[in-house]
């Protein structure tokens, strides 16, 4: 059984936990350094990246998570979690700065702060529902990064070795395929 951590400082934590349990994982809520022991993978959920960064600093989790990322621990960042992983952010200082992508925050304008689309993702499957909430997008990727999905001409899902990042919230639907791809193919 895989032992998966979910960063549990803020955001869509419970939904990831439920989906990981459906996928038969043991789940650890990561709130302090000791919770990072012996994980097979870590999920950085969506929420609000500025708030998460403040909490990561307060609980002294930023450096330990960055070290694990550099040592090869598989990590999946969804929405704000993708913002945390990105090496570069448009107009902001990066946070963990480990995944070789540049990310712009709040890419979809005020009128459409939230919407759902169906994505065809060749390596994962067809018609996968994706919920975008004040979503970021990937503006450019490094040479070793695979672009897995685009929506409206914008990159919304990419993989850089053991890092997976998406603009949207796969955990807010009933479709487990993207999380399953992470757990079975990357972790
Ligand atoms: N707009 C948020 C941010 O910048 C991310 C939104 C989300 O995670 N749903 O952190």
From TrEMBL:
It comes from the Bacteria. Its EC number is 4.3.3.6, 3.5.1.2. It catalyses: aldehydo-D-ribose 5-phosphate + D-glyceraldehyde 3-phosphate + L-glutamine = pyridoxal 5'-phosphate + L-glutamate + phosphate + 3 H2O + H(+); L-glutamine + H2O = L-glutamate + NH4(+). PROSITE patterns: GATASE_COBBQ, GATASE_TYPE_1, PDXT_SNO_1, PDXT_SNO_2. Pathway: Cofactor biosynthesis; pyridoxal 5'-phosphate biosynthesis. L-glutamine binds at residues 47-49, 105, 133-134. Keywords: Glutamine amidotransferase, Hydrolase, Lyase, Pyridoxal phosphate. The active site is at residues 79, 169, 171. Catalyzes the hydrolysis of glutamine to glutamate and ammonia as part of the biosynthesis of pyridoxal 5'-phosphate. The resulting ammonia molecule is channeled to the active site of PdxS. In the presence of PdxS, forms a dodecamer of heterodimers. Only shows activity in the heterodimer. This is Pyridoxal 5'-phosphate synthase subunit PdxT. It comes from Lysinibacillus piscis. The lineage of its organism: Bacteria, Bacillati, Bacillota, Bacilli, Bacillales.
């Amino acid at each position: 059984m895989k032992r998966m951590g979910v960063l549990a400082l803020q955001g869509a934590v419970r939904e990831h936990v439920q989906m990981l349990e459906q996928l038969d994982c043991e789940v650890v809520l990561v709130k302090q350094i000791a919770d990072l022991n012996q994980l097979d993978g870590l999920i950085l959920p969506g929420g609000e990246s500025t708030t998460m960064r403040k909490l990561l600093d307060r609980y002294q989790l930023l450096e330990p998570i960055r070290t694990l990322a550099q040592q090869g621990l598989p990590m999946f960042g969804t929405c704000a979690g993708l913002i945390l992983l990105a090496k570069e952010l448009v107009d902001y200082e990066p946070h963990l700065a480990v995944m070789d992508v540049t990310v712009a925050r709040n890419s979809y304008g005020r009128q459409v702060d939230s919407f759902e689309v169906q994505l065809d993702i060749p390596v994962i499957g067809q018609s996968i529902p994706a919920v975008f909430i004040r979503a970021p997008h990937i503006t450019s990727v490094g040479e070793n990064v695979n672009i897995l999905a685009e929506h409206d001409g914008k990159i919304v899902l990419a993989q850089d070795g053991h890092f997976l990042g998406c603009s949207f919230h796969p955990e807010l639907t009933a479709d487990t395929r993207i999380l399953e791809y992470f757990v079975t193919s990357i972790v």
